[in-house]
Write the structure tokens for this entry.
Amino acid sequence: MTVTDVLICALGALALGSALLVVSTRHVVRAGLWLVVTLGALAGCYLVLTAELVAWVQMLIYVGAVVVLLLFAVMLTRAPIGASDGLDRSRWPAVLVGGGSAVALGALLVEAFRWSSIRPPAPGTAERIGAAVFRDWVLPFEVLSVLLLAALVGAIVLSAPRRS
Amino acid sequence: MHPVIPYLLAAGLFGVGVYGVLARRNAILLLMAVELLLNAVNLVLVTASAAFGSAGQVFALFVIVLAAAEIGIGLAIILQLYRLRQTVAVDDVDVTVDVTE
């Protein structure tokens, strides 16, 4: 166990625990706030894995934009502020499928990687990722910008008042 | 470092996300569970990039952008649904009934 492993274990326990609270809490607003903790802990994991640009983008877009949008939606749909029943269906089928997929994926990954170890890469710089994006992945990058534009127009069309 | 630790963490997060998608009834909470699924995939990509070069990190950035587009469209649909039916509980939505008339 190196320092990297210990840090990832700690941040991972935090992320997993708050993720469990996201899917089990009976307060709609608190689910959004626990989601912030999960995403923040995962950003920490990315930092430890030397993917600093991904970590900051995660903080900016997920915590900054996505969670704020979700909380706006909670507000606009007049979700109950306090604890509310009836947020969940019957639990056991979901526990079975979710636990089953986690165990299956975990078994697959353990079988593939065992206790192999890699040398932690040198701290990444945004420069390297930028070079990779604009050298090897230019076409997906441009397609993604068109997709964002389409999503923007789609969201406006969907929420514009209907003309009779 | 041992890459199996973040991989197992990603598998666990994915399971939690699947549970959330199946068990939650409120459409907004359902979208939060979908975010957990996407983050589990991102963690796999970033961990792989620690061993195999930077392509994984580029893919993770792309997934984050896709998630942002998904949440924008998804919330527009949910708000429209609430405007039409006064509920966001996915069990109560009968898509065979036209309420726009």
